[in-house]
Amino acid sequence: MTLSREQVRHVAFLARLGLAEGEEDFYAQQLSGILAHIDRLQQLDTEDIPPTAQVVEVINPLRDDVPEPGLSQAEALAGAPAQQDGYFLVKAIQEAEP
Amino acid sequence: MRRRETTPSELVERQLADIEARDGEVHAYLRLTPKLARAQAAAADERYARGEPLGPLDGIPIAIKDVLCVDGVEVTAGSKILAGFHPPYDATAIARLRAAGSVFLGMTNCDEFAMGSSTENSGYFPTRNPWGLDRVPGGSSGGSAAAVAAGLAVLGLGTDTGGSIRQPAALCGVVGMKPTYCRVSRYGLIAFASSLDQIGPFARSVTDAAQVMQVMSGRDPRDATSAEQPVDMLSSLEAGVEGLRIGVAREYSEVEGIEDGVRARVDAALLELESAGAELVDVALPHTDYGLAAYYIVAPAEASSNLARFDGIKYGASDATAGTLAETYLRTRRHGFGPEVRRRIMLGTYALSSGYYDAYYLKAQKVRTLVARDFADAFRDCDAIVSATSPTVAFELGAKTGDPLAMYLCDVLTLGGNLAGLPGLSLPCGDSQGLPVGLQVLAPQWREDVALRVARAYEMASGFTAQVAPA
Amino acid sequence: MIDNNWEAVIGMEVHVQLSTASKMFCACSTDYLGAAPNSNVCPVCMGMPGVLPVANRTAVEKVLKTALALNCAIPEKSKFDRKNYFYPDLPKGYQISQYDLPLSRHGWLDIGDRRVRVTRAHLEEDTGSLKHAGDALHTAQESLVDLNRSGMPLMEIVSEPDLRSAEETRDYAVALRQLLRYVGASEADMEKGQLRVEPNISVRRRGDEQLGVKTELKNLNSFRALYRGVEYEIRRQVEVLEKGGEVVQETRGWSEAEQRTFSQRTKEYAQDYRYFPEPDLPPIVIDPGWLERLRGELPELPGPRRRRLAQQYGLSEQDARELTAERATADYFEAVVAAGAEAKPAANWVIQESPTARPEHLAAVIRLVGAGTINREQAREVLATGREPQEVVSERGLAQLSDEAELGAIVDAVLAENPGAVADYRAGKQQAIQRLIGEVIKASERRANAQVARHLLEERLNI
Q1: Closest approach of chain B CAs to the CA of C28, in angstroms?
Q2: How does pLDDT run across C149-201, given as a tens digit for each residue?
Q3: Over 80: is that where the pLDDT of C137 sits?
Q4: A49 and chain C: CB distance < 8 Å anywhere?
Q5: A34 chain-B contacts, CB cut-off 8 A
Q6: Out of C36, C43, C143, closest to residue A86 by CB
C-alpha cells in the first residue's frame, strides 16, 4: 500500500498536524516505505482469529460513586497558554476542513 | 547505610557532584531536582539515625524518565510541546517509591513520547552511551539507562512499550526490567501506547531491580487495568536454575541483522545457564516476523489518540499566532512534535481511519493474538525464554536516524514481550567490540520471579554484574 | 397541518446526564451548575497527561436499569471505545464512548398505541462547555472553555425512526423522562441540560418505502420547543420538496426567538471518528447475578402501574395517568390508601391538592371527612398543622357541628337575618339555598356540617 499526497494531507488534517512546504511528498514516501513492511500482515490468514485489544484480562474494576475534591481554578489554569476570567481562551472556532 | 558507613545525604551529594562532573558529556538528565533530592535525603538521614529506615530503597538515589509525573516537577516526555508543564500529581509508581524513601535526582532524557530506540528523538538533545560517547545509549529510556551505567544514579526508572527499558539496558550494560502488563500502575505515566506501556527499573544488579519491582507493583485503584495479583519478586531470587527449562527460539537467535559478537555472547550465556543446571529446550515463535508489523500499527494507532490532548489549549506549548483555533491546532502540533512523533501519529491515524481500520488496525490486533499464542505455546515447554535483547551492540549516533524502519528493527526481539504482555528483563552478559551485550529473559505473565531468578542465577554463575562505565 | 400526501419519519437521539454523585471516570462532583468556571475539575477530566479513567459503577448500573426498563437485550460483555475528534470542549481529543459493544440494544418504549423501538442505550462522558462572549459560535473571534461539565456521566439512547409526528415525538420524550425518573437514572430536567433531545427528521410521500433525506435538530430546550421544532421542520421539508427542491442532510438548530430552524454548519465534511477499543478500561462483564439484583431494584414501571392502579382501585384512566406521572406521586397515593383511606377520595385529594402531609395524616383526615366529623375546609386546616389529625381536631374543637339542635338554632338565626334569600328560594330560585348554607357555615365559625345544614334549611323552608 502506498500513500498519495492527498491521503497524507487528509491524515495530517485528521490528526491536526500542520505540514510544511514539501512535507506531503516526504511523508508520502516515508509512510509508504513503512507500510510496505507492514503489508506482510496481509499474508496471514486471520479469518478465525479473535483480535486482542487487551492482553491481560482484568474484569470490572469499577469505582464506587464517591466524590472527592479536585483542583482549584488556579491549579486548573496554572499551565494555560491563554486564559480569561477563569476560562481557557481559544481563537475563533471554525469547523471546516481547509 | 544501615552500617552507618555513609548517609543518604552524603550519597546524594556524591551523586550530584558526579552528575556535575560527568553529565556534561553523557547528557543523561534533562533536569535535576537537587532541592527535592536533598530534602528527601535529609528525611532519610533521620530515619537511619533513629535506626528506622523504611526499607531497602530508603535514601537510595533514583533517576526518573521524563514521562513519569512527579508532583510539582516539570515533565515534558522529551517533547517541546509539553515544555513548562508541572503536573499537580505523582504517578502511582513514583508515589510508592516516595513512600519507600527513594531520593529523586531528576528527570532523564528520552526519545520524544518514548518513541524511538536511540534517545536521538528527544526534543532537547541526544544522550550518549557512557561506554562510548559516539554511540547511542539505546532508547527510548536512554537517559535513565545511561545515568545508571555512568554511576550518575544508583537506580533508574524507564518505560517499555516495545523494548524501551530492555534495549537501552542492553546497550548500556545494566539490568532493566519490563513487568507483566497490568503489573505496575500506569497512572501518571504519560502514555505512548496504553495497551503496551509498562514502567520498570534500571539497576546495576538483578537484586536491586527486584527491590524496585517489589515496591512499585500491585493493584492501584487509579488504574483500572492494574491487576490484583500477589507480588513476590524476592523470595525465589536465589533459588538457582536447577531443573528450570530455558527455551531457545531459532526465530530469535537467527534474527535478521544479529551481530556475530552478540550471538557468541548469548550462546556462551546459555551454556553457563546449562552448566548451572538449567535444561535448554528448543521452542518456536513462528510469528516473530509479523510481530514488528503488528506492533507498528497498534502502538502508533494508540499513540495518535493519546497525543491528541496536546492541543495548545490547557497546558504546554501553544502557537496561537493565527486568528483561528484550527490554525492553533495545526501550528502547535507542527512545531511542538518532532518528526518521529509526527510520523507515528500519521501512521496511527491512517491505520484507524475509515476504510483502513480492518486492513490495518483490526488485522494487527488479530496478529497480536497469534504472537501471544506463540508465547503461550512456547511456555508449555519451558519456564523462560532466553535470547539476545538487541541484535546489535550500541550503534553510532546518526547511524539510523534517516531510516525509520532500520530503527524500528532494533526492537524486533523485545516487542513480542509487549504484544503478549510478558515480563522480561535484560542483563549484561559480556561485551562485543568493547560494548555491552544484553541477555533477555522472558517469562510467562505474572512470573517476574522466574525471569529474575534466571537472571540472578546467570549473574552468580558468570560472576558478572553490571559495572559503572569508566569516565 | 401537513398535507396528507406526506408522512414524517422521525428517530430520536437522547442524551441523559445520569444522577450520580461523582463524574463518569473521575471523582469530581457532579454538582457543577453555578460553580465558578474550571473549579469542578481534576487532572482526569481535564485530560492532563498520564492520568487514567476509572468507570463509575453507579453510572453503569443506572444505564443497565434504564435498559431493563426499556426491555433491552443486555450482552454478557460490554466495552468502552474512543471516539477521536478535536474540539476545545473535549480535553483529551477523544470522548470515551461505546461503539460496537454497548451496554444494551434492541429495546422498546410504548407511546399510546405506538411501539417505538430502541436501537441502543450506551454510556459515555460529557464534554466541557463553550462561551462565545455574547457572539455566535461561528462569528466570535475568541471563545472561552469551561471544563466543569467535562466527564459528566452521559447515557445516549437511540431510537429507530418509528415516530410519525411532532406530537408522538414529544410524547416519546415525555415518556422517556418519566421512565428515567422512575428508575432513578436522572432528574432529566431539560432546562438544566440533563435531557437533550435530538430528533432526526425526514419526510416521504405516503406509501413510499424509501426514506427521505434527514436533518438533525438541536437546541431543543423544552418539550414545547421539541414539538414546535419538529413541526416546523416537517413543514419546511415538505415545502422544499413540493417546490421541486432537495432536502440537504445537515444539522439544524431551533431558534426559540424566531420560532424556526436554521442551518448550523455551512461547510459540512465527513467526520472520521476513528473509533477503537479504549485500552485504559477493561471490558465490563455483566453476570446474570448482577443483572438480577438490578432487576430486583427496579420499581414498578409507569405503564404497568397505571393499569394496576386503574384496575385495583377502580380509578378512571385519567386519574390513574395523573397519579403515575411521577413515581413519588403514585407512591404517595398508595401509601395514603395503605394507611386506611378510601381510594377514590384519596385520588381526588392527591390530584387536586398535591398534599405534602404524611400519608397516614392524609388518610386520617380523609376518614374524618368521610365520617362527617370535619369538612374539607377544616381538613386543610388540620393538614396544615403537620400534626396528628385526631389530636388537632379534639384540641381545637374542630369537630364538625352536626348536632341538629345546636345547628338548628344557628339555622333559625340565619333564616331570620336573610329574608331576601328566603324569599328568592321560595320564589323558586333553588340555588339561593347555597347562599344560606354559606351563611350557616360562617355563623358556625366554619364548623357546620354542610349536609346537615342543608337538611335543616330545607326542612324549614319547605314548610
Answers
A1: 14
A2: 999 999 999 999 999 999 999 999 999 999 999 999 999 999 999 999 999 99
A3: no
A4: no
A5: 296, 343, 347, 404-405, 408
A6: C36
Is the N-terminal amide bond of B140 cis, ω within 30° of 0?
Answer: yes
A74 shares contact with chain B (CB less than 8 Å): no
Residues 6+ apart with CB under 8 A from A73: A86, C36, C37, C38, C39
Contact by Cβ (8 Å): B431, B182: no
> What three-state secondary structure class fits C144?
strand
Q: Is B400 a catalytic residue?
A: no
Whether the pLDDT of residue B113 is over 70: the answer is yes
Q: Is pLDDT above 50 for A97?
A: no
> What cell was used for B206?
538483578
Q: Which residues of chain A are within 8 Å of residue B369 when distances are taken between CB atoms?
A: 49-52
- Residue B205 and residue C48: Cα distance in Å, rounded? 35
Nearest to B150 by CA among B45, B44, B15, B285: B15
Best probe of the C interface among A16, A17, A52, A71, by most C CBs < 10 A, is A71
Residue C96 corresponds to which cell in the numbers above? 470515551
Q: Is B376 on the interface with A (CB under 8 A)?
A: no
- The answer to whether B171 touches B436, Cβ cutoff 8 Å, is yes
Strands B245-249 and B384-388: parallel
- Look at A62 and C54 and tell me if their CB atoms are within 8 Å: yes
ipTM exceeds 0.90, yes or no: yes
Residue contacts between A and B (CB atoms, under 8 Å): 177
Question: What are the E-state strand segments in C191-275?
Answer: 195-205, 215-218, 250-255, 260-263
- CA dist B252 and C216 (Å) reads 56
- Cell numbers found for residue B397: 549516533
Whether B140 sits among the annotated catalytic residues: the reply is: yes
CA distance linking residue B106 with residue B116, whole number of Å: 21
In this structure, how many other beta carbons lie within 10 angstroms of the beta carbon of residue B471? 11
- Between CA B59 and CA B54 the distance in angstroms is 9
DSSP B184: B
Residue among B117, B118, B122, B164 flagged as catalytic: B164
Q: Is residue B44 within 8 Å of residue B120, measured between CB atoms?
A: no
Q: A96 pLDDT exceeds 60?
A: no
A17 vs B: CB within 8 A? yes
Q: Compute the distance between CA of residue B420 and CA of residue B369 in angstroms, rounded to an integer.
A: 8
Of B224, B304, B307, the CB nearest to C54: B224
Q: What is the pLDDT of residue A98?
A: 38
- The residues near B81 (Cβ < 8 Å, ≥ 6 apart) are B123, B310, B316, B317, B332, B333, B336, B337
What is the spatial distance between Cα C355 and Cα B30, in angstroms, rounded to a whole number? 70
Active site includes B426?
Answer: no
| Rounded mean pLDDT, B218-227 | 96
CA distances (Å), origin B284, targets B251, B312, B340: 7, 48, 33
Residue with cell 442505550: C121
- Identity (one letter) of the amino acid at B244? L
Instruction: Express as a percent the part of chain C with pLDDT over 70.
Output: 96
Range B44-50 contact pairs with CB under 8 angstroms and sequence separation of 24 or more: B44/B7, B44/B8, B44/B9, B44/B101, B44/B103, B45/B7, B45/B8, B45/B9, B47/B101, B48/B1, B48/B2, B48/B4, B48/B7, B48/B8
The H or E element spanning position C381 is: helix C376-385
* Sheet of strand B29-32: strand arrangement: B29-32, B103-108, B61-65, B155-160, B198-203, B175-178, B424-432, B435-442, B384-388, B245-249, B279-283
**Cα separation of B400 and B296, whole Å?**
17
d(CA C151, CA A70) in angstroms, rounded, equals: 13
The pLDDT tens digits of the residues spanning A44-78 come to 999 999 999 999 988 778 999 999 999 999 999 99
Q: Is the pLDDT of residue C213 over 70?
A: yes
